[in-house]
């Protein structure tokens, strides 16, 4: 399993946490257990096999980082969302944006362009057809702002 798959699992966890039914640590401890991954593998091929240690670390650090910086990340989304009411965005769209923005700002081994591209690809998989363009626009504006700093 590579970073792309680990990112998608991290997205699932960020999405699940957006419903505030679990604490961050409780969810991570439960969901990253091999027995839970195995039980999900029958429905979602992404969960088949054992997670390499480095990908578990990436997932844990990323999900915890998104949670720790959630208000800040949401403010960036709000700032760069033109003609979109962010209160009406789906949990998945917000999860995609939070994850990508966190990677862009805090994960040194993820190039900004890769974070944007991966978010757009995941949006194509999980969201309606207008969402990938919106995500690309928000993340592109955020990237330009980061580059100017």
What is the helix content? over 70%
- The overall average pLDDT, rounded, is 88
Total strand count, please? 0
* Low-pLDDT sequence parts: none
Report the portion of residues in β strands: under 5%
What is the straight-line distance between the termini? 34 Å
Global outline: globular
Number of helices, where a helix is a run of at least 4 consecutive DSSP H or I residues: 8
C-alpha-based Rg, rounded? 15 Å
Secondary-structure class:
mainly alpha
Write down the secondary-structure element order. Answer: HHHHHHHH
Largest sheet: none
Brief overview, please?
With 149 residues, the protein is mainly α. It has helices spanning 3-17, 24-31, 34-41, 53-68, 70-80, 91-106, 112-126, 131-148. Helix 5 (70-80) crosses helix 6 (91-106).
Give an overview of the whole structure:
The protein has 149 residues and is mainly alpha-helical. Helix content is 72%, strand content 0%. The chain has 8 helices and no strands.
């Amino acid at each position: 399993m590579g970073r792309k798959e680990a990112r998608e699992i991290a997205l699932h966890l960020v999405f699940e946490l957006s419903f505030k039914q679990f604490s961050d640590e409780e969810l991570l401890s439960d969901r990253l257990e091999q027995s839970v991954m195995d039980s999900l593998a029958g429905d979602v091929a992404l969960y088949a096999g054992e997670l390499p240690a480095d990908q578990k670390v990436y997932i844990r650090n990323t999900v915890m980082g998104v949670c720790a910086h959630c208000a800040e990340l949401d403010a960036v989304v709000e700032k760069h969302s033109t003609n979109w009411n962010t209160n009406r965005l789906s949990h998945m769209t917000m999860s995609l944006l939070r994850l990508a923005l966190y990677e862009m700002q805090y994960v040194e081994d993820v190039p900004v362009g890769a974070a944007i591209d991966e978010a757009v690809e995941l949006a194509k998989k999980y969201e309606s057809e207008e969402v990938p363009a919106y995500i690309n626009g928000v993340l592109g504006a955020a990237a330009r702002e980061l580059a100017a700093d």
